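Tutorial sheet, problem 5. The two components below are modelled jointly, 647 residues in total.
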Amino acid sequence: MDRDRRVRIYDAHSWTGISLGLVLFVVCFTGSLAMFARDLQTWEDPARRLPLVADPIAIDPLFQQWVESEATEHEAEVTFMGMNYPTAEAPFFRGNVNLRDPDGVVHFHQQRWDPATGAVIPDRQDGLATWVLDFHRDLMWPEFLGGRQIGRGLVGIFGIVMMLSILTGIITHRKILREMFTLRLRRSVRVKWKDGHNALGVWTLPFSIMIAFTGAWLGIIVLLLPVTGMLVVKGDSEKLIALLSGPQIEATGEAAPMISLDEIARRSHSSGDGRLPTAVFIQHYGDTSAVYDIQYKPDTELMYSESERINGVTGAALPLTGLQERTAATRTLGAITPLHYGLFGGVALKCLYLALGLALSVVVVLGNMVWIERRWHSAEGSRSPNFYHRLSQLTVGVSMGVVLASVAIFYADRLYTGAEESRIVFIGQMYFLAWFATIVFSFLRSNNYQTVRFLMRACGAGLMALPVFDALTAGATPWAEFATGHVAAPAINATLFVLGLGCVMVAQRMPRERREYLGKRKRDAAPDTGAAEAEQSAGATTQTA
Amino acid sequence: MKWVILVAVLGLLGWFSWRKPRLSATIIWSLVATVLFTSALMLAFPGPVRERILWIALSSPLLWVAAMFWCYWDSRPRRPIATMLSVSLLSGIVIWMIPPPG
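Model answer (structure tokens):
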């Protein structure tokens, strides 16, 4: 490859990193947490820590009564309803209903019941887990800027940029195998960070490619598919829906008795392997054409769920249509979400995903730091040292801020005592407050090394204190929870503690200031070839970090 | 007023594409070409409609990234933008000529 081409590709790699590096860091870091959204729901909601009941109460009468009362209260028509059966992650019944009011507006309602007593479990609105997941998915993009679809599309575009960055990175680095095993920790900061960026980048490469592709697809599809679809069907959106989802079943208007939801709960999968339903979704309830879509855990882990469709009156099997039909394309499509969120291999795989996700975040931020370092402390930079200093402070503030904000919302969610409807708003406020405060803090301090050390320690302390805080506020000790068979909440607590310990240990090993300046003072006592090399290339640098 | 805005936008696009051919091809024209080309493929490819829509939709991020990458790979700065515009134009003709499926 000629030099000009290599330079162009390197420039593309640099500029994708420096222009969107911090956003990519935020998406990668929040994604590492978003994988645990289901487990975090158990952590945040004490109602989820109920023991799993072997012989639950009959839910059908309670559910019907609730649906009727909701429809009467809101003077609305039921368009769709569903029931989630108790599972280890959510050990309670959860009913859902969509109601269309006289103005044609559809409202969603849900209710939870204790499977042992049938008592209604107090409503708990979206909180910590929803924030963690949705901030990663769509940045909680506000309605006045176009809504969540736009946010999701933007995250998809960041995925595309990440794919481009990976591709240009592979082309740029010629000695990729050697870089896998090169980590010169005793050299100058630039060499150390560059080695870290390269080595971690190569080791996480297959994961990065997979996560960038699946993430990009999940995001941009909400923008591209409607546009592409409209071009294909010449603007007829109903035709597009019909093409993708298959023919819709219409209500006959003849009333008929329905199969009980308790009977459905005992209906094992038609393959005869004993799988029981996890949920059922119902259309045209009470009509002879009623359809039950029964969800099972899939026979392959690379699918989110598997459906069987029956008539709600006779129980006769109905053919699956549209995206539920099992073809190579729908299976590939179905594999994208489990692949992206690591839902196909249990706890060990999630831990591996967490490690790789955090490593990817570090790769992104190290790339930015190397870019700044090269320009700040050498003749390569065309701006003033103060500009690069500010850029460095911004990098520290944004990246450490999102980490601290993520810790802060664990406390915020548990301490919140206001109206349930406003829980997610409060979580968001606390998230941005903590993030903004960290950015301001990093701009107020001139020594970035000490800022990072301090923030890492604060983050570590916050994480390590969370298990104690959980035991005090949820009223359940880890051993008591293990005794009732709950693993999710204690496992989350253990992970938080280990991560916190890791942060404190890393902070302990971090330098207090730029090593080259330490080197200037301590050169006689501890000569450092890396520092000398960096100083040689940097020339007479006077700016301290 | 609409026409004024349209002409202004087209003028800006033209100016940006002329002054920064690689950058404009990467940021704008690669996306336009990808959307139009995938739409044309969905119409022109044989086989069941849903399957081909899904497969081509699955490949669209790869096509987009490949187009962006090629903008920096090619040694001649104006060739990528010319190709993207040509692909977009041809795809537009295919979309206009082929009737919708179903």
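Marking note: Chain A is about 60% helix and 10% strand. Full credit if you identified this.
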